[in-house]
Amino acid sequence: MTVSRTNRRRAIVALALTVVIAGCGGKDSESPSTAVPASTVIGPTVPAGPTTVDPRADDQRRLTTGQALRLSQMLLKNDQAKGAVAEMFVPFGSGATITLRGPIDWAGDQGSFVMSTTRSDGVAVPDSRVIWDRGSLLTEVDGLEKSMEARGRPGVTFVQRALNPQTASLDQLVAFVGSLAVDRAENPILLRQGDTAFLGSKTVDGVVVEGYRFGKTRYWIDPSSGLLRRVEARFARYDESVVITLTDHGPRTIDLPPASAVVDAATIPDVLSELNVPNP
What we know:
Elements: H1 3-18, E1 51-52, H2 65-81, E2 83-89, E3 96-105, E4 110-119, E5 128-133, E6 136-140, H3 144-149, E7 158-162, H4 169-178, H5 188-193, E8 196-204, E9 207-214, E10 217-221, E11 228-233, E12 242-247, E13 262-264, H6 269-274
Parallel strand pairs: 7-13
Antiparallel strand pairs: 1-8, 2-3, 2-12, 3-4, 4-5, 5-6, 6-7, 8-9, 9-10, 10-11, 11-12
């Protein structure tokens, strides 16, 4: 792992953590059309299956030495795995549900997601792709190809802009998933002394996992492999926890669109305005 990639990952982590609730905070006034419409929900929280919890376990139970060690290594295990498949569910409103699914390449700081929307009023919404490429976000925009063809650039389907987790909700989700892999373990002694707790165990996708609270975020780890299987994180703009499930850990290759299919958002403000797409 190069120093430049490590520094870039740390920057992503820092940006992601600024939008996770650290004790208080409310929703911001983001425009409804900013990446994830305010009238939508990114999926309902998926039932995790039967739960078996130690009757002594609650969100205040101190970690044992072994539990602190496991918690300290979970993000390092992701880094060593190099990638995984992520599925994200985020409570955003009551008008619809949205699911983001796709591979993450932590080694290359990249990811590709299919965003599926189901509206409560039954209106069909086509799936779209969202691609994270290091410090950039590429989003597939409905109507862009036709607008760009009229301007002499046929075949353009993606808008590219700088990743902006501080203001854009979609960027926050992508940056947070990208921050779930680091190249060194935490200090288990400090974790035991910090705001952490053991939550017991439950079943996620047929795997019995152990739960850990670190601040306001909950992590569910496969004790046999040490791999992180689920994260429940609180963000200031959502009423409930964002739920991220990780499966199929291992190297991933992200398919990027050709350069001819991508346009820089900064060069087409008029087109984005016509399509009602903000440029955070």
